[in-house]
Design the sequence.
């Protein structure tokens, strides 16, 4: 199979959690970026990591790792603001990785470990042979979901309050992993294809650090030993 390259976008200047990507996290000196780079370097199924950031502090730290798998890119400021669209980053990712397969992930998913990445890539290969053209991770929601003042995932004319175990789950995209051939980026201007396989992760593994309370909860999970960040 062609090369698997990780695209790791990591911009400076989080508005919700200042220095979120590199501030200490549960005793880890360089925080989320240290955790994620250690995980990706340890992942056997990932051939290369393209770190794209406008944060010189992150680039300086990454250089100290001296990993042959790591390719550093100083991202232009016009692609590094809070207003930068995902569509613009899709084009940027393809510019950096024009061939092979692109695994897009984020430092804000610290509990997706090297072992998870390896398993996702193995499943992706199987799914390509089964007719899917890409993969993305999701979180399954088993609950009473309503939209536009009516149920989304059950029929109240059949049963007003079915057992939650019997409800059809709704998949929430958790942005942990998007995995697709570079050709999808080129031809569809997207990080998933037309027939993506949905790969569910449990709520702890998919915990995303976006808001201050997410940071606090993530630190508590790590400090309590709920999840090993480098488990295989």
Sequence:
């Amino acid at each position: 199979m062609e090369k698997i390259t990780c695209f790791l976008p990591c911009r400076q200047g989080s508005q919700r959690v200042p220095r979120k990507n590199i501030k200490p996290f549960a005793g880890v000196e360089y925080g989320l970026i240290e955790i994620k780079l250690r995980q990706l370097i340890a992942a056997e199924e990932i051939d290369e990591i393209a770190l794209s950031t406008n944060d010189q502090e992150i680039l300086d730290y990454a250089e100290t790792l001296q990993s042959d798998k790591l390719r550093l890119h100083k991202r232009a400021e016009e692609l590094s603001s809070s207003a930068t669209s995902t569509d613009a980053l899709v084009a940027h990712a393809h510019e950096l990785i024009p061939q092979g397969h692109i695994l897009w992930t984020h430092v804000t998913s610290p509990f997706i470990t090297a072992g998870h990445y390896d398993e996702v890539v193995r499943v992706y290969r199987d799914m390509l042979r089964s007719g899917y053209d890409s993969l993305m991770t999701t979180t399954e929601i088993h609950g009473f979901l309503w939209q536009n003042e009516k149920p989304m995932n059950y029929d109240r004319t059949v049963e007003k309050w079915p057992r939650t175990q019997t409800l059809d789950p709704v998949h929430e995209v958790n942005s942990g992993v998007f995995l697709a051939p570079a050709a999808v980026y080129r031809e569809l201007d997207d990080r998933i294809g037309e027939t993506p396989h949905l790969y569910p992760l449990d709520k702890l593994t998919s915990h995303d650090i976006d808001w201050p309370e997410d940071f606090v909860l993530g630190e508590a999970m790590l400090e309590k030993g709920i999840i090993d960040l480098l488990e295989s």
